[in-house]
Each structure stands twice: as structure tokens, then as C-alpha cells.
Amino acid sequence: MKKILLVEDDPNLGLLLQDYLQLKGKFDVVLCTDGEEGIKAFNKQNFDLCILDVMMPKKDGFTLGKEIRKTNQQVPIIFATAKAMMEDKASAYDLGGDDYITKPFRIEELLLRINALLKRVVNNEQKDNEPAQTQFEIGKYNFDYTTQLIHFEGQKQKLSTKEAELLQLLCLKKNTVLTREEALLAIWHDDNYFNGRSMDVFLSKLRKYLREDPKVEILNVHGKGYKLLVN
User: Fold this and answer.
1) CATH architecture of the domain with range 135-230
2) Which of 43, 53, 78, 115 matches a 20 to 30 Å C-alpha distance to 109?
3) Which one, of 47, 60, 63, lies nearest residue 96 by Cα?
4) How far, in Å, CA of 224 to CA of 110, rounded?
């Protein structure tokens, strides 16, 4: 069971979130009501994820997050606040936060964000344990992920970082389905609508780069994702 540190000074909201996440998410949730209590709990126990309210007495969420990052660079942190100002969001990410949610929010949305972050941690651990393939043959093309280059009949096509990451995922799943969610979480770390539209643009560019070989296609698989088909 994954353990979550929830630091929220509103007792009603805190208990509601704790009960919901324990019931629906099947998490072990430790609830603290201020930043000082939160850092004491964090230093005593091991947590898989932290949810920190920003506006709190004694020690605010940003200060708490900064202290957590001094001792742990990996644990995912979600900041929750009533503020929606861009500078607050920038501060959250600058302090090492992984996500930011604005109050009022739907608890179901928070649960989705938690699951996405935990899934990303698992994927990163798997990548760390497995040597990543960087050289690929795609029909008549050769793709070097490290240099971000596609070679074809003496010509080179330089890819952007996200184009190279997306093509690597497609190559690793060659002739099988790469789900849309898997690609978005792996590259953009969030499967929201706007990131999805960005990915569609990168897919169009990759199709253009690979169009000279009729045996190579990037197919849309309705309701699922994409497939790099090499005949």
C-alpha cells in the first residue's frame, strides 16, 4: 500500500481527503494540520507522495516542500492552494514540485493526478533498471536516439528532443500499440488535452520525416493510441 503525506490546515477538507484517498485510492494517508507537524512526520516515516497545502500556519507549503527537497529529491510533491496566480505555479515547480492543483478542486481529479505521478515513478524505476535502446532500423531509415538524427540514403534529419523521445517510444513498441496515455505520461508527464494536441503535432512531423519509405507508417489506432508499422 502506497503511503501519502497529506498536510492540510482545514480540518474538514483534510479529513474528507484522507477518507476518500484511503477508501477509493486504497492509500495509507497520514494527515498533518500544519507545516511543522508535516516535516516531523516526513522525517520519521517513508512516503511515496506528498500533498501540501500552500497557505498554512507556522510553516507554509512552499517552505515545507523546500525542506523536503533538501533530504529527498525523488518523492513526488503536489501543491494545493486557493491561489491561481501564475507566479505561485512557477514557485511550485521551481521548488521541485511535480504538480499543482487549485482549490476548489474535485477529489476525483486529485486522485487522477496522484495515480499519474505514482505511475511515472514506476516507469522511471523500470527505465533505470533497463538499458535503453538507442539505435533503431525503421525500414530504410536508421534512427539514432542519442544524436536525435534520422539517416536516410546519405541524408540526415535532426529531431527535436520531444520528437526523438516520441519516435523512440514508437520504435520500442514497433508493430504494436503505443497507448496515448503511455506516451503523454512518459514525455509530458501529464495526459491533459493540451499536451495531447502538442503530441499530435509531433506525430505529424514524424510522419513527414518517414514518408519516403512506403513500407513505414505511423497509424492511429482508434480509441487506443498509435502503431509504428514496418512491413
Assistant:
1) Orthogonal Bundle (1.10)
2) 43
3) 63
4) 24
Pick 3-128's CATH classification: 3.30.420.10, 3.40.50.2300, 3.60.40.10, 3.10.50.40: 3.40.50.2300
Q: Which residues contact 75 (CB under 8 A, 6 or more apart)?
A: 47, 48, 49, 50, 68
Residue 95 has what pLDDT?
75
Q: Which 8-state DSSP code applies to residue 8?
A: -
Quote the mean pLDDT of the chain.
89
- Condensed to tens digits (0 to 9), the pLDDT of residues 213-224 reads 999 999 999 989
pLDDT at 127: 58
Q: List phi, psi (to 5°) of 143.
A: -115, 125
Domain residue extents for the chain: 3-128, 135-230
Confidence at 82, pLDDT banded by 50, 70, 90: confident
Q: At residue 86, does pLDDT exceed 70?
A: no
Q: Could you tell me the pTM of the whole model?
A: 0.56
CB 216 within 8 A of CB 139: yes
Question: Cα separation of 113 and 190, whole Å?
Answer: 8
